[in-house]
Here is the input.
Amino acid sequence: MNNDDINNLEDDIQLALSAESTEEVLKEMEEWVFTNDKSNPMIRQLFHLFYNSVFKNKLGLMHALHEPTKEVHTILVGVEITPEGVVTWPIAKILTEDQQGQYKAPDGEGNYA
Here is the structure.
């Protein structure tokens, strides 16, 4: 998910987090957000969107075919039940064991460890 994708989620985030639902969700959750950019609220809003979606049973996992490589990847998907059936859309790719070691965590002070 790149910055454009996150920015496009902003409307969805705002809808999912009405004042009432935000207050309700925040009472029950412990916010685990790690970033060096404390001035940007988007990562916290994205966390709230994910948490709220889980709370409302609107997230799922999928083994999806990655068209360019023809490999099957595990992805996190949004889920909506409509009169026509279940609608899903990709949200994030789950990292493989090999990919997990390629990332360093922010220390909150501008560095990565």
Q: What stands out?
A: The two ends are 22 Å apart (CA to CA). Strands lie at 59-66, 71-82, 85-93.
